[in-house]
């Protein structure tokens, strides 16, 4: 029986999940069969194909990881995020599936931290679609803001400060970071490539 899934499209999704480095090998297969595809429509042949492709992709990534440097591009990016958090800027990896989701995640952390009393002065994040782009191209787009300041002029001025600080830290970490200075536009960081070791590595 022929496959009912689109092999090229599904293979691309498997690649993005595996090479993102965020998911254990054991989760990739069911994420494809039960979430990405419709489990009520795929066949036994489809499931067997996904299992084989997921195993092949995981094996290829593990083989590549053996030649990676001790500190990868992701590790350097994560160090930037750690520094941002130390400076009272919420910094989130893989925050939801969209900008709206990411801002919801930020608000949740802000509320949990104590709202204005927390001293949090801004945020920085990328979402899962940005992650897919980074896996494929090495370019990561970062959203940011100057926090939950009620007064608009003050909030916008603080957003500029936060944006400039993010760019400064990215460049200090060795990345080519670009931002127009417009608070309605995101920061583009050229990581070169996306290399994150998986949780099972």
List the keywords.
201 residues, single chain, five-stranded mixed β-sheet
Instruction: Please indicate the percent range of residues in DSSP E strands (runs of 2 or more).
Output: 5-15%
Order of helices and strands: HHHHEHEHEHEE
- What's the main sheet like? 5 strands, mixed
What is the arithmetic mean of pLDDT? 95
Structural class: alpha+beta
Broad shape: elongated
Q: Number of helical runs?
A: 7
Strands ordered across the widest β-sheet: 1-2-3-5-4
Contiguous runs where pLDDT drops below 50 for at least 5 residues: none
Radius of gyration: 19 Å
Give a verbal description of the structure:
The chain is of the alpha+beta class and 201 residues long. The chain has helices at 7-20, 25-36, 44-65, 73-86, 99-113, 128-137, 152-172; strands at residues 89-92, 122-125, 139-145, 176-178, 187-190. The chain has a 5-stranded mixed beta sheet with strand order 1-2-3-5-4, with helices on both faces. Strand 1 (89-92), helix 5 and strand 2 (122-125) form a beta-alpha-beta unit.
Give the topology.
Blueprint (H helix, E strand, L loop, with lengths): L6 H14 L4 H12 L7 H22 L7 H14 L2 E4 L6 H15 L8 E4 L2 H10 L1 E7 L6 H21 L3 E3 L8 E4 L11
Parallel strand pairs: 1-2
Antiparallel strand pairs: 2-3, 3-5, 4-5
Helix pairs in contact: 1-2, 1-3, 1-6, 2-3
Short description:
By secondary structure, the chain is α+β, with helices and mostly antiparallel strands. Helices cover 54% and strands 11% of the residues. Strands 1-2-3-5-4 form a five-stranded mixed beta sheet, sandwiched between helices.
């Amino acid at each position: 029986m022929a496959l009912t899934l689109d092999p090229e499209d599904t293979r691309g999704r498997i690649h993005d999940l595996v090479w993102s480095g965020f998911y254990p090998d054991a989760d990739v297969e069911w994420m494809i069969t039960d979430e990405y595809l419709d489990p009520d429509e795929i066949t036994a042949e489809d499931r067997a194909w996904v299992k084989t492709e997921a195993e092949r992709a995981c094996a290829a990534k593990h083989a590549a990881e053996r030649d990676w440097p001790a500190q990868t591009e992701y590790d350097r990016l994560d160090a930037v995020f750690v520094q941002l958090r130390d400076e009272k800027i919420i910094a989130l990896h893989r925050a939801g599936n969209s900008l709206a989701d990411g801002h919801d995640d930020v608000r949740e952390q802000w509320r949990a931290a104590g709202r204005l009393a927390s001293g949090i002065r801004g945020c920085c994040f990328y979402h899962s679609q940005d992650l897919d782009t980074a896996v494929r191209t090495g370019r990561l787009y970062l959203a940011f803001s100057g926090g939950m300041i009620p007064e608009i002029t003050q909030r916008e001025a603080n957003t500029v400060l936060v944006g400039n600080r993010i760019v400064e830290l990215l460049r200090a970490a060795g990345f080519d970071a670009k931002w127009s200075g417009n608070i309605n536009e995101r920061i583009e960081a050229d990581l070169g490539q996306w290399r994150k070791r998986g949780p099972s590595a």
